[in-house]
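Researcher: Please generate the 3D structure of the following complex. Treat every line as part of one assembly.
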Amino acid sequence: MTDGPLIVQSDKTLLLEVDHADSDACRRAIAPFAELERAPEHVHTYRLTPLGLWNARAAGHDAERVVAVLLEFSRYPVPHSLLVDVAETMARYGRLQLVSHPTHGLVLHALDRAVLEEVLRSRKTAGLVGTRLDDDDVVVHASERGNLKQVLLKLGWPVEDLAGYVDGEAHPISLDEDGWSLRPYQEQAVDNFFHGGSGVVVLPCGAGKTLVGAGAMARSGTTTLILVTNTVSARQWRDELLRRTTLTEDEIGEYSGTRKEVRPVTIATYQVLTTRRKGVYTHLELLDARDWGLILYDEVHLLPAPIFRMTADLQARRRLGLTATLVREDGREDEVFSLIGPKRFDAPWKDIEAQGYIAPADCVEVRLTLPERDRLTYATAEPEDKYRLAASAAGKNRVVEQLVAQHPDDQVLVIGQYLDQLQLLSDQLDAPLITGETTIRERERLFAAFRTGEVNRLVVSKVANFSVDLPEATVAIQVSGSFGSRQEEAQRLGRIMRPKADGRTAHFYAVVARDTVDQEFAAHRQRFLAEQGYAYRIVDAEDLTTA
Amino acid sequence: MATYTQALRERGEIGLATLLTLRPDLATPPPATLRSLAARSSTRASLDRALGELDALSLQLVEAALALHHPGSTASPARAADPGTLARAVGLTEAEAGPALARAADLALLWQDGETPGHHPAPGLAEALGPFPAGLGPWLSTTLARRSEDGLARLASALDLPTTSLDGLVEHVGDAATVTALLAGGPPGVRQVLDALTWGPPVGRSPEPASAGVTSAARAAVEWLLRHGLLSIQDPQHVVLPREVALVLREGRTHRSPATAPEPAGTPIDPRTVDAESAQHAEEAVRLVAGLVTLWGEEPATVLRSGGLGTRELRRVASRLDVDDTTAALVVEVAGSTGLVVEDGEEPPSLAPTAAGEEWLREPVPQRWQEVAEGWLTAERAAWLVGTRDEKGARRAALDPESRRPWAPRLRTTALEVVAQHPGAALSAAQVHQVLAWRAPRSAPPEHAVEAVLAEATTLGVLGAGALSPAGRALLGLGSQTDDAAARGAAPQVPATHEPTASAPAEALAAQLPPAVEEVLLQGDLTGIVPGRPSPSLGALLDLAAQVESRGAGLTVRFTPDSVRRALDAGRTAEELLAELSRHARAGVPQPLEYLVLDAARRHGQVRVGMASSYLRSDDPGLLAGLVEDRSLAGLGLLRLAPTVIAAQATPAALVSALRARGLAPVTEDQSGAVLVAGPRRHVVRGVRGRGRVPAARSGAAAERGATTAEEARERRLRRLVDDLLRGAAREEADGAGVEGAGLLGGPDAEGTPDPVIALALLREAATEGREVWLELVGPGGTIQRRRVRPVRVDGGRVRAVDAEREAELTVAVHRIATVTPA
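Model: Done. Output below.
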C-alpha cells in the first residue's frame, strides 16, 4: 500500500486529494483518460468513462499505461474488476479503422473481422456504408463519415479515424505578439488540439478562449470559418483577431443577418446558418463557399441541433470547439464529443485562478425572506407561476440597491430573466437596460461606455449571458435566471472573471427568495460552480447591512 | 469361481473399513450380513452414489472394465479384462492407470476374484451405466443369437464358413483379421457407416428400405454389413454395431484418450488486492444484512401465503438498501440462514428480527461477518433461484421453502476448495466447474450453480477479486496459506503454528480490514469525503446525516436538506450535528454546509403533529384556562394548544360527560364544525352491520384497520373468533397429516424385507457373471415352481433369464420370485 493521493472507487470514480504532495503529478498522469467531474477545495473527483478511455487511446495512451498510473498513485489496492474493465474497454477502440483507400475513397477497415460483422449487422449502420470490398473492408459514403463515427461509438466499437483531414486553402496567419504572449495553458491547449486533429477545449470564462482560437488559426495557417452565438460576439471576435493577429480588416468577413461577407476568415452566427426559408437552410453554401482549413465553434455547449447535423458532413475538416462549461442541459455532450471531437484540454477553474489568469471571485447567495403577503401569494399560486413569482419578488430590488451601494467604485452588472423586473431595477438604479429588443448599435454603444467607465451600472437580460466581453465588470448581481441552468450560472460568473488591472476580487451575488423554488433552482444552478471550487457563501438579506 | 460377495469378504477388515468409509451409505443402517452388504452395494441408488464420487479417469476405467467384461455363457465363463488391457483401452500404461483402478476397486465398483488378474464390474453396474458402456454396442454373442437358424446359415455362407454354430460364428466375426479383411473387400460407403457408429452411440437408424427398386448407396452398405455380421438389427428401424467389431475399429480402445485432470491457469492476483476487495465486500455485506435487520425491526415484511418473501417486499428491501434485486435476495436469504430474521408465527405471519438478530447488531463487524458467512456456508438454500420460475411458471420468492437444496453446502465447500488450491489466483466459474466436472463427472453441479455460488462468495467477501480471502480460508478451516504469507511479506500474519480457533474467521477478517479513518473532508459543494474506511462512529454519523454517493476504498457523501432533516428527526440538534461534524473535519465545516444545517434546523419542527382524541374550544380563554388547571379533569389529558383551544386524550363522549358533571353545557360538533344534535346511540347498529360484513376468513390486519375507541371491544371479540377458527383449521390439518404419515410408515410394506433386495443382488451378480441360479417362482395359482436359469438382465422390475435345460428364455416379474439360490 502506497501513501498515494488517489483513491480508486469501484464505481469508477477517482478521488484525488488536492493537498497531497503528489497531487499535481497525479493530476497530470490521470488527466488524459479521466474526466474531471468536480473540483471543490479538498478532493477532486474524476471519473473513468468509456469515452474518456477511448479518447486516451486515440491520443496514444494504452491500457497498460492507464493501469500503471492507477496502481502508482492509488492509496489502496485498486479494484481488480476495474482494471479488467479498463483493459477491456480500451481494447474496443480501433478494432475498426476509417482509412483513405487509393481507389475506393473512404473505407471502413476491420482489424477484427467479427466486430465488422457485428456492426454491419446492426440496423444503425444501414445506409451509412456501401459495397463490401472484401472480408475486412467496406466502402463508406464520404458524407456519412461523421454519422458512422457516431453510430460506431454508440455501438461500443469506436473507430480510429485515419482518413486524415483536407489541408484546406492556405492562408498565412500569425499572432502579433507585441507586449503579450500566449499563456502556458493556452499554448498547451493549442498543442493538444492540433496534435489531436479536432476536439474541444474547455477553459473558464475570461481565461482567453479567443486567443486559443487565434493560436489554432495561426498554427493551421489556413482559411477559417468561425461560428459564434450572436452578432455582438462576432464583432468582438473580429476586434480581438485584428488586435492579436496579423489579419487585416479586409481579410475578416462577417456573415450575419446584416452582412454577408465571405473572406479568408469568416465569422458567422449560428442563427444565420440555421435560418430556413421554406424548409431549406438558405445559408448552408457558406460551409462550402471556401475550402476551409479550420472550423471554429465558439460556445460549443450551445451548438444548436441543425449545426450538429451540418457538422457531421464536415468530418474531413479540422474542428475546434471552445467552451467554458461542457454541461449541456439537454445532455448531448456525447454528440459534441463524437462530431466535433474529444475534449483536448480542460483545467479546473480554480487552478487558472490560482495562476492569476482569471480574477478570484467571491460568490454569495443572498437569501431574502419574503414578506408575509408575498408568501401567501406564492403558496397559493399555480405551479407554473411559482418561479416567476419568487424570482421577481419585489423585495429583491431593495437587496440589489443595497448591494450596489456596497460597491460604489465597481463596475456593476445586474442580470435577470424577467423584463418587467429588469425595467424596474433599471429605473430604480438609474442604469441603462439592455435586452433582446435593444439594437445592436445601441448595445455596442452601451458596452463600450461600460468598458470606458462612462457607465458603471448596467442592467442586462440574458442577451448578455455569453460572449460579451466586459473586462472591467467586477460585480455581477443575478436576480433571476433560466430556472436551474448550470451553464448559465457559470457564464454569468464568467462575465466578471477577466483579471482586473488592480487584481481586485470579483463579486458575484445571486439574490434568492427563501423557501421557494427560486432557492431550489439556485442550488441546482450553483452546482457546476461549486464543483469547480466556487463555494457560495450564503448570507441572509437581513444581515447585508452589517456584512 | 469367486463371487462379488466372496470378493468383499476377501477385502478383509481394512478393506471393508475403507469401503464403508468411502461409501457411508452402506454403513447406515448397519448391514446384518456381508451378503446384505453386497446386496446393498449393488443397488442402483448406492452405485449411482459411488459412481458420483469417481473422477473422470476412474470412471473411464470402470466403463472400460464393464465394456470389456464378457459375461460368458454356459460354455465359457465370464472373462474380465486385466489391468493392462484396461489401461491400454483408455490410452494409458498400466502404471498410470494403477491409482485410478485402485480407487474404483476401493469403492467396490470393480472387484477381482483372486484367481485371475481381471477386474470384474460390480453387479448392477451395467444397469447403472446404461446399455452402451463407453458407447459400445452388445456383444456378437447377443446380436447373432437374435438371428434365426436360417439367418446364421446365410451368414456362414456369406463368410464362406463351414460351421453354422453360434460360437464359431461369434469367434470368426469377432476376430480382428476377419473384420479387416472383410472391410477391405466391402462396397463403397461401408466405411462412412462404420465411422458414424464406431465411437458411439452404436445404434443408427436404418436407411429407408429401397422403394421402387432404387437402392441408395447407404442402404447398400448397411445391407452388406448386415449380411456379413458386422452390423446387427436392433429393432425394425435401427441397426447396431456389435462390440467386438467396434473394438477392432477402435483398435482395442474404449476411449479415444484418457481423461486428464484440468489444470486451470488462474489470473494472478496481488494478495493485497484480494485482502482489500474481500474486506470491503465483507464489510459491505455486514452493512447490508444489518440494514435488513434494522429495516424489518421497524417494519416487518409480510410473508406470502406459499411462504417466502413477495416480489414487492423484496423490491422494498432492494430500494432501502440501494442494491439490485439479486443482492437483496442474497441478503435476505443469508439473514434467514443465519437465523437473524425469522417468521414471527403471528397471523398473518411476517418476517422480523430474532433476539439473536438484535444481539448480532451490537457485535463488532468481524464477528458479525463470521456468523453471516458461516450461516451462508452451511445453508441448504439456493439463493440464486430467487426470481427464476419454477416448473409451474411461478416466480420463486426469497426464503421460498421450496428453494431448499441439501447439496448446496457441499457445492459451496467444494467450489471454494478448488479456488483455495490456487492461492494468489482468480479462477473463473467455468474453470472451477471444469475441475469439479473432472473430479466427479456424474455428480458435477450445473455451471450456473457454480457461478452463482462464487458470485455469492464474492458478495460476502469470502472471495476477493476471484481469489480466496484469508478470512475465507479460515472459514473453510484451511488455516493460513504459507505461500500467501510469503507473498504478503511484511503484512501482519497469523503464525503458521496458530491453531484454528472457533473465532478464526473473524480474527482473519479483522486483520484484513484497513485501519479506520476518523476524518472526513467537508467541501463547499456540500460533499464530504472519507479518505479510507470510516470508523464506526464516523460511519454512523454520515449514514445518519448524509446521503452516500460512492462507496469503496473511500466514502463520498452528499449533504442535502433531506439527509440533514433525517439526522434532526433522529434527535440531533443542529448544534450537536455541527459539533460532531467539525470534530471529524480537519479542514472545518464550510459555510454552505453550516448554513444548510442551520437552515434545515430552522424549518425542522415548524409544523408539529400530535395525537388527540377530541378537542374543546371556547371563545372564553378564561374558562379554558380554568379547565386545564382543574384537578378533577386531570384524567382527560387536557393540553392547551391556543388560548381558545384545548386538545384532550379522552373520547368526545367521555369529555362531554366529564364537562357536564362539572356543570358546563358542552355541545359536540362534527368535522365541519356544525353542532350535532344528540340522537339515539348508533354503535349497536354499526356493530351488527360490521359483523355481517367481516368475513370469517378476513385476517387480523384487516380487522385492525380503522379501529375507533367505540369499536375496539367488538373488534377484539371478532379477532378472537377468527383466531379460534384458524387455529382449529391448522390443528385439523396437522392431525390429518399425522394420520397419513402413520399410514405410510406403519402400513404393510412388501418391499421392506431384506430378502428381495438380496435376491435381486444375486440375480444381478449372476447376470453379470453369466452364472446360473435356482429360482423359486410363484405361479398364478400360488404354486411354487423351481427352475434353474441363467439371468440375462435385471431391469424395471423384471428378470430376463435363459432356462438352459428347456432351451427357453423367460421373463419373470420380480414380485413372483420367492427365493434365489446360487446354483
